[in-house]
Write a structure and sequence with these properties.
The structure is a single chain. By secondary structure, the protein is of the alpha+beta class. It folds into three domains: 27-242, Immunoglobulin-like, CATH 2.60.40.3140; 250-421, C8orf32 fold, CATH 3.10.620.30; 427-636, Jelly Rolls (Sandwich), CATH 2.60.120. The protein is 18% helix and 39% strand. It is built from nine helices and 38 strands. It has an eight-stranded mixed beta sheet, with no helix packed on it. An eight-stranded mixed beta sheet has the order 27-28-26-25-32-36-35-34. A five-stranded antiparallel beta sheet has the order 22-21-20-23-24. Helix 4 (288-302) crosses helix 6 (331-344) and helix 5 (320-326) packs across helix 6.
Length: 637
């Protein structure tokens, strides 16, 4: 008996130790200084504890429980506090509260439900929406601080099951994060797991995931999107409810068929006056694309964009009849309205769901679910697709560069959904051509007539300048050519040719003291109007692959009239660089009548590149910066 006693005591001590240790660990999550040291390097915030539990109780009953504790180290980490919840007519916030702790873990503020600000969850450009948000915007008096957020939200829709993306920003470390789905609905749940390996993710069970002690990701130049290499779990039911309307979602064909049948059918009826208008407009025109072009212009001239987030989950478009009468709509309503107009003149088209953004983001072709933030229209044309942006009243017909280009989208057809890719603009299609005639004077100043013509993606970067005030245009060009000091803009003429999609900017300008004087010499850079000045950051040990999202081509030709009584004493020799990332060349030539001709071509190619290639890519850019600074030395004859 005596021999057994120590073992019992040891067992009791063991249990007591771990009970206390476990409690201690829980309390420690509120104390900033007790965060794991290996996680505190180069971070703005640390997620100390994040638990998201999703209960799917029926096709129209889902409850999301959230508890999140975050230690914030500086103002850049404030955004990771995430003290907010969205709700609408189809979701209700049952619980929401927050607590703030100082660096020692002492509670300094308790935020109750009534303390949260309640606002519309959409911008001022939205006519109506039932989407709202409760949030608490904490203003810290010192750093670090720790904030705890707890919520419970009940949803009547199961079309939008929250994804798990524990790493939602750079310089954010994860001490502990957990995600669990309890599917009690009897409906099959499908998951897509991405980047689970090599990210400290533990698969506890089929629908249960956990991360412990994952260091923050440092941002690196040309990094791909975070979602492409950080953990992500996408869930979806094979049968779902969206605001009272049930749907089937085993694949994209099913989902697209549901969108067509439940969201679009019956919304495309037009007033007879609109039908008569477009039939008269296109009378005698056999070419369907030309008819589409005229109808698109008709739509643009008679409508304006206003966000209208009503209908089934904000996904159902306004009636085409209402858009026609009111003269406004959101992306869904205007796209559906344009589709109806085209049908009236026998031009087939497809309502299309897309992620619209300057950054390229795809609809996931391998995983069907409620995806996309924007609607556009697809007009098929002999095996090719023309995509129309219906929310922009000045957009050229068929132009998608910069917002919906080069990405997977969902065509909604009567027979079901189909994933296709929007137009990819190659380098020659995204051209910026700059020409200049320059007259230099003996003091180092010059006058110049400059034209800049852009197409494709580069057109999208320049489009809109023509709509600025004269004062803002002057400011724009001074910033655009900030390498030229003492610049004066004398005249601006901009022509936007939407038929061939070319923006032409003609600018007359002058500058004093551009060339530096050294005795009888003038020294200047012949590349006055299109210089690359930035070199991508250097990394001794780059961690991430890198991505160039779009190709483009710059073509420059400047004719420079030298001042009287000056001649060229020295100038940089021509250079030609060829790499896998693109090419660069420039050349200086002496012409008759004391003139110089400067020509330059720079092509950058889109692509995903391994991190081992980054050093060579940086060297390519470094060489461009160097040669764009090439000099010409003039001497008085």
């Amino acid at each position: 008996m005596l021999k057994s006693l120590p073992s019992k005591i040891n067992l009791f001590s063991y249990v007591l130790f771990f009970s206390i240790f476990g409690f201690s660990q829980s309390e420690d999550t509120y104390i900033a200084m007790l965060a794991p040291q290996e996680l505190t390097t180069k971070v703005n915030a640390i997620v100390r504890y994040d638990n998201q539990k999703i209960e799917i109780n029926a096709i129209d009953n889902m409850v999301v429980h959230t508890k999140r504790i975050v230690t914030v180290y500086n103002k850049y980490g404030d955004k990771h506090a995430n003290s907010l919840e969205f709700y609408s007519e189809n979701s209700s916030i049952k619980t929401i509260e927050a607590r703030v702790y100082d660096s020692f873990g002492e509670e300094i503020k308790k935020i109750k439900k009534n303390d949260f600000t309640d606002n519309s969850a959409v911008s001022g450009g939205t006519l109506y929406s039932d989407s709202r948000v409760k949030y608490y915007d904490y203003t810290p008096t010192s750093y670090p601080y720790t904030i705890e957020f707890i919520s419970e939200v009940k949803h009547n829709t199961t079309a939008f099951i929250p994804q798990w993306r524990p790493i939602n920003g750079y310089f954010l470390a994860i001490q502990f994060a957990e995600y669990k789905i309890e599917n009690n609905s009897g409906i099959p749940l499908k998951l897509k797991k991405e980047n689970i390996e090599n990210n400290n993710v533990i698969e506890v069970s089929e629908n249960h995931f956990r991360i412990e002690n994952l260091p923050g990701v440092n941002y690196e130049s040309y990094s791909p999107s975070l979602v492409t290499f950080t953990p992500n779990v996408k869930p979806a039911l094979t049968k779902f409810n969206m605001n009272g309307v049930e749907g089937v979602n085993t694949n994209w064909q099913d989902f697209g068929k549901w969108v067509y049948g439940e969201l679009l059918t019956g919304t495309d009826i037009l007033p007879q006056s609109a039908i008569d208008d477009v039939k008269t407009l296109t009378e005698g025109i056999d070419d369907k694309i030309e008819r589409a072009r005229l109808v698109y212009k008709y739509m643009q001239d008679r409508t304006r964009y206003i966000s209208v987030q009503i209908g089934i989950g904000g996904w159902k478009p306004m009636l085409a009849d209402d858009v026609s009468k009111l003269g406004y709509g959101d992306c869904k309503g205007l796209t559906n309205y344009t589709k109806a107009l085209l049908e009236a003149v026998d031009v087939p088209s497809y309502y299309t769901l897309v992620f619209g953004s300057r950054n390229i983001l795809d609809i996931d072709k391998e995983f069907s679910s409620a995806q996309g933030n924007h609607a556009i229209l697809c007009v098929p044309n002999n095996g090719e697709n023309i995509f129309l942006e219906c929310t922009n009243q000045t957009n050229p017909f068929g132009f998608s560069a910069g917002f919906t280009d080069d990405r997977s989208v969902l065509l909604v057809k009567p027979e079901g959904g189909e994933i296709v890719r929007t137009k990819i603009y190659e380098a020659d299609e995204s051209l910026q051509k700059t020409n200049a005639n320059v007259i230099m004077d003996a003091t180092g100043g010059f006058t110049a007539d400059v034209t800049v013509k852009t197409t494709g993606y580069q057109y999208s970067l320049h489009d809109g300048i023509q709509n600025k005030t004269e004062q803002d245009q002057h400011i724009y060009y001074k910033d655009y050519w900030d390498n030229i000091k003492n610049i004066f803009i004398e005249n601006i003429n901009i022509i936007n040719d939407k038929e061939i999609i070319v923006l032409s900017e003609a600018v007359k300008l002058s500058a004093t003291n551009y060339a530096s004087k050294s005795g009888d010499r003038l020294i200047f850079q012949p590349n006055m109007f299109n210089t690359v000045t930035s070199i991508p950051s250097r990394y001794t040990d780059r961690k991430l692959e890198f991505k160039v999202e779009r190709s483009f081509k710059d073509s420059d030709e400047f004719i420079i009239q030298l001042p009287e009584d000056f001649k060229v004493e020295a100038m940089t020799e021509a250079k030609d660089i060829k790499t896998k990332f693109g090419t660069y060349s420039f050349k200086l030539e002496k012409l008759e009548a004391n003139k110089l001709k400067y020509t330059r071509t720079y092509i950058l190619l889109k692509g995903n590149y391994p991190k081992e290639d980054y050093k060579a890519f940086r060297e390519f850019r470094k060489q461009i910066v160097k040669h764009d600074k090439s000099k010409v030395v003039l001497i008085k004859a």
